[in-house]
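Researcher: Structure for this, please.
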Amino acid sequence: MRKKLVIGVALVCVFLLAICQSTGRQVGPQNDLGRVLILYYTWSEHGNTENAARIIQGLTNAQMVKVEPATPFPELNTNEFIAWGRGQRENRSWPEIKDLGVDPASYDFIFIGTPVWYGDVSFPIETLLLNTDFGGRPVACFAMANSNERDVLSLFNSKVRNGQVREGIAFRMQDETEVESKITQWVRGLY
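Model: Predicted structure, C-alpha cell format:
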C-alpha cells in the first residue's frame, strides 16, 4: 500500500511539472544569469530598495549584501538631513563603507540597488562604485525614488569601474504589485 502511495504522488508531481512546462510557466526561481550578487543600500524605514532586492533575489537565487556606512549617518529630521546631504554632495564627501565580505568580481552578474538622492545614487553606493572593480562582470542598477529619478541610471553607468553595464531600472515606489511586476519583467529581460 505504501509503495502505491509513493508511486501515485510521484506520478502526480511528474504530471504537474509537465503541465507547467507545456504552458511555459516556471516552477520556482529560474536563473540564466549564473551566480548572482545583489549589493544594495536602503535608508528609509519603508525599506523600498531592500524590498526590491528581495524580489530580485526571489527571481535569481542571488546572494544579498547590504552596503552600510562604516559610521552611521547623523540622526536628523528630514529637512536637516537634506541640508546635511547637500553639503556632503557639494564637498564630494562620501562615507566609508563596511567591508562587503564578498568579492563582487567572483560573481557572474551583479545587481546594485540604491535609493535616489539628489537625482543620483545614494552616498554609500557612490563609495561602493568609486572603490570597486567589478572584474568585467555585468552590472545592473535598480533605483528607487520619491522624485528626481530621471538621470540616476546614466549617472550610475558613468561611475561603474570595469563592469559591463546592463540596462537598469529606476522608478517611484507605488503599488507593490506593480513594482513586483515591473522588476520581474526587467530581470527576465536581462537573461
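Researcher: Any notable elements?
Model: Residues 2-22 form the longest helix (21 residues). The chain has two domains: 1-30, 31-190.
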